[in-house]
Design brief:
By secondary structure, the protein is of the alpha/beta class. It contains ten helices and 14 strands.
């Protein structure tokens, strides 16, 4: 009985949040451990389906690093990383398109459909969504986003579909680009003027002390980001992730969350409860 009462309490607590997000756009970047663990993957897709059912316009943006590495290994291509980003020559870029826009994207769309969601699979190439140039010659065809076209995404949302977008970009010369999923989600959320962006990751959020989960910083104003970097609180791989949060806020997103995708129902707990789960970024001082 206690379990049922707790469920009822959560639903009552969630009501004002559901009302706030109804008919608003939510962008979720999906990756990390939640994407490689089959049980967590099923739960995340159930959460996406529920959010669509209650009237939230969800856009799911995904990567698929482990699957790309497996495919490259089968093709006899060595995975090489520069500054945490995958070096991408032309052959690797085509493999990225095959894995992300083909295998991973369609698996997620199929799973959502089996749960009752109306989902459609897209890549950054479809509808000219993500136009790119090279981030640097050193990285090869790793995409720097130059332009975002939201027409196709908005058409899907207005028709009641949940767009599932793989982070593959293009240019006018016919090149294919591998785009970082955090960067793509941030750019898409800004262009869509989303109410919120959630970045699912493998840490609890931004920590005051590295490795100490109890030192979670629950709220960060983007104006404080430079000082937090200077103090070393934001460091290493968290720097580009936080910069994505900052950029999304500057481009009109109201709230950005870094949340732990390893926790069951982390998205629902982040969006639809009083306590939240990870770190929330907002504009202001």
């Amino acid at each position: 009985m206690i379990g049922k009462e707790a469920q009822a309490e959560f639903l009552l607590e969630a009501m004002p949040y559901i009302e706030k997000y109804q008919n608003k756009i939510l962008v979720v970047k999906y990756g990390g451990n939640a994407m490689t663990d089959d049980t967590l993957k099923q739960l995340v897709m159930r959460d996406m389906t529920l959010l669509q059912f209650v009237g939230i316009k969800v856009v799911l943006v995904h990567g698929g690093g482990p699957e790309i590495s497996q495919m490259l290994k089968r093709m006899g291509i060595e995975s090489r990383f520069v500054g945490g980003l995958r070096y991408t020559d032309a052959e690797t870029a085509h493999a990225v398109r095959m894995v992300l826009a083909g295998k991973v994207n369609k698996e997620l769309v199929h799973m959502l459909g089996s749960l009752g969601a109306k989902a459609v699979g897209l890549s950054g190439i479809d509808g000219n969504i993500l136009k790119c140039s090279k981030e640097s010659e050193e990285l090869g065809f790793v995409g720097k986003i130059e332009q975002v076209n939201t027409d196709l995404i908005l058409s899907c949302l207005n028709a009641g579909y949940l767009p599932v977008i793989s982070t593959v970009g293009y240019d006018d010369e016919g090149n294919i680009y591998n785009v970082n999923a955090d960067t793509a989600a941030s750019a898409l959320a800004g262009a869509l003027k989303a109410e919120s962006l959630i970045l699912m990751t493998d840490v609890r959020g931004l920590l005051q002390k590295a490795g100490d989960a109890d030192s979670l910083i629950k709220k960060v104003y983007v104006s404080d980001v430079p000082s937090l970097i200077k103090e070393g609180i934001i460091s290493g791989g968290m720097i580009p992730k936080v910069q994505c949060c900052r950029d999304a806020i500057r481009n009109g997103v109201n709230r950005v969350f870094i949340t732990d995708g390893r926790v069951k129902h982390s998205i629902l707990l982040e969006l639809l409860s009083d306590e939240g789960l990870g770190t929330m970024f907002v504009k202001g001082d």
